[in-house]
Amino acid sequence: MNNRWTPRIVVFQCQYSLYCEADQRWMDTQLPPHIKLISVPCTGRISPLFVLNAIQGGADGLLISGCQPEKCHYKEGNLGARRQLDEFWRFLTYLGMEEERMRFAWIDLSERGRIQQELADLEEAIRAIGPIRRLVTRAIPVGENP
Ligand code: FES
């Protein structure tokens, strides 16, 4: 794959998912321009439509970053998100999307450097498979057989 190509990555971060201070400062001020941070109240609030919008907007990969399973402020919002988004992602992979383009990371205050590592790993995996492909190349008019 072309090494000059830089994948675009969207990070959905739960606002309560606390990174260590240095990591949060890095997220707030030094995030590379090809990584877009979207803060959400809880990963449980991430609709599959958010994921679809990110992909339609040109994201090559997504990271869902939330609280540890037992530390979700909305009891099991993160577990619900995992179930729902996993299911949605399986549907997208059925349509041809590569599985490697989306990851979950439950990160805790004590895991210094983990968010950078997760993003680096995701970026490396996406570089290996290349830019995202459009799943639908043309609209099919109603009544026409594909
Ligand atoms: S409050 Fe953080 S994942 Fe639910």
Task: Please give a structural write-up.
- The structure is a single chain.
- By secondary structure, the chain is of the alpha/beta class.
- The protein has one domain (9-129): Rossmann fold, CATH 3.40.50.
- Helices cover 36% and strands 16% of the residues.
- The chain has four helices and four strands; from the N terminus they run βαβαβαβα.
- The chain has helices spanning 21-29, 48-56, 77-94, 114-129; strands at 9-14, 35-40, 61-66, 102-106.
- It has a four-stranded parallel β-sheet, sandwiched between helices.
- Helix 3 (77-94) links the parallel strand 3 and strand 4.
- The structure holds FE2/S2 (inorganic) cluster (FES).
- FE2/S2 (inorganic) cluster binds next to helix 3.
- What about the largest sheet? 4 strands, parallel
Radius of gyration: 16 Å
Number of strands: 4
Question: Low-confidence stretches at least 5 residues in length (pLDDT < 50)?
Answer: none
CATH class (first level) name: Alpha Beta
Structural class: alpha/beta
Name the hetero compounds present. FE2/S2 (inorganic) cluster
What would a concise description of this structure say?
This protein has one domain: Rossmann fold (3-Layer(aba) Sandwich), CATH 3.40.50. The radius of gyration is 16 Å and the shape is globular. Helix content is 36%, strand content 16%.
